Structure prediction request, 122 residues.
Amino acid sequence: MKLQYWVLAIVVLQALSTAAHANDRTVSRSQFGDEWPFTVEEGTLRCSDNEVTFSTNGVQYAVNGSAKSAGYASMDTIWQPNTELIQEMADAMGMTLEEAMKEFTFKISVGPVIESGLELCK
Prediction:
């Protein structure tokens, strides 16, 4: 009888473990190409209660507003600048790219990552 309880407990734990990780997946620069908004090469994209997060190097970053409101870390430290747009501004204003990088904070859109993350919540 005790063996049956252990087997049942193992089955339940496996089901919970699978459910806990059903809303995440590894994503990388190679999957998103030019739309990759991060300075790191890969991480884990998660969605829970419509909170989309991206984890890398032991930190879970907020990707959408819901996750930001929930208190996850700001992704500003890993958010890739949009150097093409900044270069256009630099050219238009007669500045060097370095000067423009200090002046403008245009970033690569996180829209595609948010969309991909929200798919995990479905």
